[in-house]
Amino acid sequence: MDAHSQPATVNPAPPAPAVHDEHFSQHVRRYLFVFYALLFGTAITVAASYIPFGNRAINVGVALFIASGKAFLVAGYFMHLISERKMIYGILAFTAFFFIGLMFLTLASFSDFPRHTVTH
Amino acid sequence: MDIPYTIESRPDTGLYNAKVGIWLFLASEVMLFGALFSSYILLRVGAPEGYWPHGWLNIPIGTANTAVLITSSITTVMAWASCKMNQFGKFKFYHACTLCLALTFVCIKSYEYHDKLTHYSVKLADGKIADGHLIEKSKDFDLVQKTGFVVLHGHVVDLANKQGEELQKELKTIYDLRSPEGRAVEHKELKLEAAQIASMETYGPWHHAYTAIYFTLTGLHALHVIGGAIVIGFLWGPGSKLWQKDPERFTNRIEISGLFWHFVDLVWIFLFPVLYLL
Q: What's chain B's Rg over C-alpha atoms?
């Protein structure tokens, strides 16, 4: 069981360590690594936006790919999703299903318009 | 009345209740921002060629704000880890940093909003468009009475009687500020008499579909930052008394507020490239 999801116990003040310090020191090192990776990812995102790939769609794809990588790091490590309980994964699976459905409906809605229609 | 499962895990979920609650809330938040992202896609894809802006926002400022939010995420997770390691002093330090960073983010965002709300698009009586930041407005300036004047730092664009490639080139001086045409524009002081002006508006949400979705998305996000900062501020200040009575329960509260804060960071990770770079 991961440290963050351990059932906690009530301690009298001053509280005793809930989890061994060395174990958390490893976690802290990992968090710092993720932090540097996120800053690096931000720099890469900005740099990539200046590269003319020839088609703006490729720029969009590259930026969203890097953003997805950064989102994975935040969700996976800072939000501890990399080692969570099944219940949380279940909630997120439903969310992902409806989110993808929403995006699919958005794209599908374009077929309602005749070609070259301006929507605003 | 005691709230059940604030510390110990429920046997069926394996989680304390607040954790299930925050994830259900975050799921609803995903759909909220998802709907707005969907609106962004509709507006952007539906825009006529050349009319969707690029480079309207300052990239170095946006990058700095991204770094601020990422840094606040690491201080948040370090505050939680400090609680787990029984280092209350360090918790106080890290969450003080989080609060300062949240304030920095909101200040930078306010500066950006101010920049947009002092940027004018002026339709002139001769059909041209003057575009630039307001430097001065005379005291007697009145668009209805046609008295007074305004001074802008900007440039004049003539879209009338232009078509095809010529129109696209001219459009880039307003809409694509990252293009060679947009970067080549020279800004100068423009004194405009009220009699010359047909209408004028700032780059607020009413100006363009892009500014509408920009203010909506970043405004909603900023409200989340402010809301999160209030909760973190409470737990850092008066709420931290719980640490003495029940440290485990307090640590769980820090984890829950942290999950919300990381979600706010996660949303910005997508907002930044979508609004500033693409």
A: 24
What angle in degrees, to the nearest 10, is found between the helix axes of B88-117 and B59-84?
160
Nearest to A87 among B20, B35, B66 (CB): B20
Interface confidence (ipTM) of the complex: 0.90
Tens-digit pLDDT profile for residues B72-82: 999 999 999 99
Q: In sequence order, what are the residues at sequence separation of 6 or more whose Cβ sits closer than 8 angstroms to the Cβ of residue A104? A: none
Map out the domains of chain B with their CATH numbers. Answer: 18-116+208-277 (1.20.120.80)
Q: Which residues of A touch B274 (CB under 8 A)?
A: 63
Nearest of B181, B191, B188 to residue B141 by alpha carbon:
B191
Which residues in chain B (115-144) have CB-CB distances under 8 A to chain A? Answer: none
Sheet (strand B119-124) strand order: B188-193, B149-157, B129-137, B119-124, B197-202
B246 CB near a chain A CB, below 8 Å?
A: yes
When pLDDT is cut at 50, 70 and 90, the band that residue A113 belongs to is: low
Judged against a pLDDT cut of 50, whether residue A11 lies above it is answered with: no
> CB neighbours (10 Å) of residue B24?
14
Burial (CB count <10 Å: 0-12, 13-18, 19+), residue B278? middle
Partners of residue B45 in chain A, C-beta under 8 Å: 110
Q: Which residues of A touch B269 (CB under 8 A)?
A: 67, 70-71, 74
